[in-house]
Amino acid sequence: MKIWVEIDEERLAGNFAALQRVVAGGSGETASETALLAVVKANAYGHGIGACAPVLARAGAEWLGVTDAEEGAAVRAALAAAGIARARQPRILVMSGMMGLASEAELVVAEGLTAVVWDEGHLQLLAAAARRVGAAERVPVHLEIDTGMARQGVACGAGLERVLAGFAARPELRLDGVFTHFASTEVAHAAQTHEQQRRFEGAMAQVRAARAGTPAWVHVGNSSYIDNGAEPGAVAWVRGLAAEMRARSMVRAGLGLYGYLLPIEGASGDDALVRLQVRPVMAWKTRVIGLREVEAGATVGYNGTFVAERGMRLALLPVGYADGMRRELSGSNARAGGWVMVRGQRAVIVGRVSMNLTVVDVSAIGGVAVGDEVVLLGDGVTAEEHALLAGTIAYEIVCGVRVG
Length: 404
Description:
The radius of gyration is 24 Å and the shape is elongated. Helix 1 (about 10-25) crosses helix 3 (about 50-60) and helix 5 packs across helix 6 (about 120-135). The protein folds into two domains: about 10-275, Alanine racemase (TIM Barrel), CATH 3.20.20; about 280-400, Lyase, Ornithine Decarboxylase, Chain A, domain 1 (Beta Barrel), CATH 2.40.37.10. Strand 5 (about 115), helix 6 (about 120-135) and strand 6 (about 140-145) form a beta-alpha-beta unit. The chain has helices at about 10-25, 40-45, 50-60, 70-80, 100-110, 120-135, 160-170, 190-210, 225, 235-245, 385-390, 395-400; strands at about 5, 35-40, 65, 90-95, 115, 140-145, 155, 175-180, 215-220, 250-255, 280-285, 290-295, 300, 305, 310-315, 340, 345-350, 360, 375. By secondary structure, it is α/β, with parallel strands linked by helices. An eight-stranded parallel barrel has the order 2-3-4-5-6-8-9-10, surrounded by seven helices. The protein has a five-stranded antiparallel β-sheet with strand order 1-11-19-16-17, with no helix packed on it.
């Protein structure tokens, strides 16, 4: 394999524990009273479901979050392959809803997944699937409330009333959870977060008044919601809201599990609760496939954007933007590029990153040979550093990693 990923399982389990400590901290509760849903959607943020899902299950995750039913089935298979019996596996939440396909609803029921719903069409699909599959028990679903993202979820008011009435009309389904997603958790004292909380409180009042059943779970958040120390009562707020429903509270975490967190905008230095406790989990690697000496004046890469100002030794790597190495990391004479780690030292990118090839400067690194291991992401070069140079966020960097 020319490009591969290595996962530090101890770091991944440690990151889960660090997030769970913050969720439980200051309340006097045990870690199990407020659950931490571990998000493994998008192939565990590019880290690999097969490697990460079993580690998180063994670390104590009661819930795993996936993108769709197919990914949920892949998680089931990964957990089974790791020797985790079905009865001991975490529950799996299908976070991005369904595509309106009967086959997807049937997969949710057959694999024992928990679907996210927000309109009557979802309820109809799942109820019909439950009848076709012959589900032995009522199918659990989680209802998403749109409190200000305008993405997924049912709006409060009349729309929510209609969906709640749909539960009462479909005995095949069980309202197992209610949740929302906040848009500005990485902002200290965000007015939008406070407004979304207010709307969610109103929605929960509607749920309590309806005859749709009593949810067992109430959940919100993401990694920044947990990390944002400028909002010290954030977890306590959802805990209290759940208690009013006699439900358990839960907070979701994704990127933080893998060792990265967004900066808290407008926060003081003491307002990040988790950031210093988590460490990057992924090492993305390749090998040197070629070496050459060039003289001063030689051009490197497309359009000759880099011209050697002295004699140089260059290493060729079999990775490019088709593999997730961002083109914005290209290096020219006018702009320093990104870097990789070769023999524990920085080797800067020179010339434009190509589709499947990248050139780096190893002039100052002694003994480099064809076949040497190269760290593209890992100790010495992080997704946050790639993101800063590429003008994006760490989420996009790690999710873009490909292997093969």
